[in-house]
């Protein structure tokens, strides 16, 4: 049994932890998108990578990791799956040691196919969050994304 001071700390952490709540919301919203996109054959995590590479053209994996705040191993696993599906390819970079990620025609096609399901997921996610929380999330998320953008680098 915990002493009273430890119990008080645990209660405070349990009732106020931002990380727990953000992870809960993340899991719930991701499940909404994954369910909506299942019929198209893409996951929300893969769609985010395809959209990012599509937005910036051929890109260094490090840029995509930075932009989406992904661990390189997470990006690598997703990229390998998407390469097998013909959505992405690795093209030679400026030197022999580097490569860039590029979206192929089937990748663009899957994004077009996914768009209606994505719109429906957007509506459900917006309803889960509610108006004020959605507005705050979109505003703060846009600032974080813009901080990760560097227009001069592939």
Would you mind describing this structure in some detail?
The protein has one domain (4-147): Winged helix-like DNA-binding domain superfamily/Winged helix DNA-binding domain (Arc Repressor Mutant, subunit A), CATH 1.10.10. The protein is built from seven helices and two strands, in the order αααααββαα. It has helices at residues 4-16, 18-37, 44-56, 61-68, 72-84, 105-129, 131-147, and strands at residues 88-92, 99-103. The chain has a two-stranded antiparallel ribbon. A hairpin with a 6-residue loop joins strand 1 (88-92) and strand 2. Helix 2 (18-37) crosses helix 6. The chain starts with a helix and ends in a 7-residue tail after the last helix.
Topology summary:
Blueprint: H1 4-16, H2 18-37, H3 44-56, H4 61-68, H5 72-84, E1 88-92, E2 99-103, H6 105-129, H7 131-147
Antiparallel strand pairs: 1-2
Helix pairs in contact: 2-6
- Mean of residue pLDDT values: 92
Total number of distinct structural domains: 1
* Oligomer type: single chain
Low-confidence stretches: none
Distance between the termini: 56 Å
* Computed CA radius of gyration, to the nearest angstrom: 19 Å
CATH superfamily: Winged helix-like DNA-binding domain superfamily/Winged helix DNA-binding domain
Q: If classified by CATH, what would the architecture be? A: Orthogonal Bundle
Q: Supply the CATH class.
A: Mainly Alpha
Major sheet: size, sense and barrel closure? 2 strands, antiparallel
């Amino acid at each position: 049994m915990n002493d009273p001071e430890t119990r008080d700390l645990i209660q405070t952490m349990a009732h106020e932890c931002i990380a727990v709540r953000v992870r809960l919301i993340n899991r719930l919203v991701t499940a909404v998108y994954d369910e909506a996109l299942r019929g198209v054959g893409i996951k929300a995590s893969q769609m985010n990578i395809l959209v990012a590479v599509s937005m910036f053209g051929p890109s260094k994996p490090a840029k995509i990791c930075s932009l989406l705040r992904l661990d390189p191993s997470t990006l690598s696993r997703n990229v390998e799956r998407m390469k097998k599906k013909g959505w992405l390819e690795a093209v030679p970079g400026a030197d022999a040691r580097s490569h860039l990620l590029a979206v192929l025609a089937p990748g663009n096609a899957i994004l077009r196919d996914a768009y209606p399901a994505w719109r429906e997921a957007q509506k459900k996610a917006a309803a889960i969050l509610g108006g004020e929380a959605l507005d705050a999330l979109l505003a703060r998320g846009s600032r974080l994304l813009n901080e990760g953008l560097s227009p001069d680098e592939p």
